TrEMBL record:
<dbReference type="InterPro" id="IPR024084">
    <property type="entry name" value="IsoPropMal-DH-like_dom"/>
</dbReference>
<keyword id="KW-0479">Metal-binding</keyword>
<dbReference type="Pfam" id="PF00180">
    <property type="entry name" value="Iso_dh"/>
</dbReference>
<dbReference type="GO" id="GO:0016491">
    <property type="term" value="F:oxidoreductase activity"/>
</dbReference>
<feature type="domain" description="Isopropylmalate dehydrogenase-like">
    <location>
        <begin position="4"/>
        <end position="340"/>
    </location>
</feature>
<keyword id="KW-0560">Oxidoreductase</keyword>
<protein>
    <submittedName>
        <fullName>Isocitrate/isopropylmalate dehydrogenase</fullName>
    </submittedName>
</protein>
<dbReference type="GO" id="GO:0046872">
    <property type="term" value="F:metal ion binding"/>
</dbReference>
<keyword id="KW-0464">Manganese</keyword>
<keyword id="KW-0520">NAD</keyword>
<dbReference type="InterPro" id="IPR050501">
    <property type="entry name" value="ICDH/IPMDH"/>
</dbReference>
Length: 356
């Protein structure tokens, strides 16, 4: 039976990037002589810009809830059918975080250099980014929660993932970046209990303390940072730039659902947003989407070496100066993808014509 992956598309540049994803995935499948099916959500989800263009506050609230309900059910259904992975283009953050709260999501990224490997585990299931809004005359009241259950699930996942990342057991430090001084000491207690349960040491720190230590000393060679969204959403891009020499426009990352309704399902996304201002211009940078297709093919469709094959192809394009305007190039999205597809070879070696 051929592997099947999911595809969810938002507005803005979502349709263009979905087409890139399908083309690249199909080329990789052809290179490896395998079939990879794609099951697409029938709903095109709103971006924040498309919501604001179409509606006032009450309608925005309604459409936000509809998008969240639909996407959460799409994820649950894919998981029940055994679909291992979904590629999702950017959608409205409020809808997205309602889904992440319900399905208890964590975002995972490994930011690596030859000397340092930093595992960032972002707690997307609780805190200010989740929760509900209540409107009153001249006021908006946002109610959110932290819980012992979710905190334990996030820590347990981070420990498992670290042990998978470094199977020899060598973790130099685990840091948690949360504004815990606002939580009456409850988070301190939950973290201490969880650390003892897993046999690890965890340093619970204020976000500014984590920042100061990273600026002064950098991360230790094998560092895990577990972070609330309030810090990680801002700092992800900074960590990529400072410790990974990478731009968010080129980066894909993964979200893992911890709720039993979607357990085992992994969602891949670009780190960049919906880029509504570029919609229809054939100018959006496709690199993050290309990388997501390669990761999904390798991890979930049996195409061992697909990531390296695509990276070599991207390196070939870089040597030839082929790129979109945000990377200093003069090429369209379509031209970049065409050039990449022409140089992909299943053994990981770009075709001879690549650098001619």
């Amino acid at each position: 039976m051929e592997p099947v992956v999911g595809l969810a598309v938002g507005r803005g540049t979502g349709p263009e990037l979905a087409a890139v994803f399908e083309r690249v995935l199909a080329r990789i499948a052809d290179a490896y002589s395998v079939g990879i099916g794609v099951t697409r959500s029938e709903r095109v989800y709103h971006s924040y810009s498309s919501l604001k263009a179409d509606a006032g506050i009450e309608r925005v609230r309604e459409l936000t809830r509809e998008d969240a309900d639909h996407y959460a059910e799409f994820c649950r259904t894919r998981a029940a059918l055994g679909v291992p992975a979904i590629f999702r283009t950017a959608i409205n953050a409020q809808s997205l975080y309602l889904v992440r709260q319900r399905l208890q999501a964590v975002k995972v990224d490994v930011i690596a250099t030859p000397d340092v490997s930093l595992l960032l585990v972002r707690d997307e299931a609780q805190g200010f980014y989740t929760g509900e809004n209540t409107h009153a005359p001249g006021a908006l009241i946002r109610t959110m929660a932290f819980s012992r259950e979710i905190t334990e699930k996030v820590i347990a996942f981070a420990v498992r993932r670290a042990r998978r990342e470094w199977p020899d057991g060598g973790v130099d430090q685990i840091v948690m970046a949360y504004k815990f001084h606002l939580l009456d000491g409850a988070l301190d207690e939950w973290v201490a209990e969880s650390a003892a349960r897993h046999g690890v040491e965890i340093c619970l720190s204020q976000p500014d303390t984590v920042n100061r230590n990273l600026i002064e000393r950098g991360p230790r060679p094998r560092t895990v940072i577990i972070a609330g969204n309030e810090w990680a959403d801002i700092m992800h891009v900074v960590l990529l730039d400072r410790f990974g020499s990478e731009r968010q426009e080129n980066r894909c990352t993964e979200n893992v659902y911890l709720h039993p309704d979607a357990a085992g399902l992994v969602e891949y996304q670009t780190v960049h947003g919906s880029a509504d201002d570029l919609a229809g211009t054939d100018a959006v940078n496709p690199v993050a989407t290309v990388r997501a297709a390669a990761v999904i093919a390798e991890r979930h469709a049996g195409c061992a070496g697909a990531v390296r094959m695509v990276e070599r192809g991207l390196e070939s394009l870089g040597r030839r100066g082929i790129g979109t305007p945000d990377l200093g190039g003069r090429h369209s999205t379509t031209a970049v993808v065409h050039a990449l597809l022409d140089v992909l070879e299943p053994d990981g070696r770009p075709a001879m014509m690549a650098d001619s």
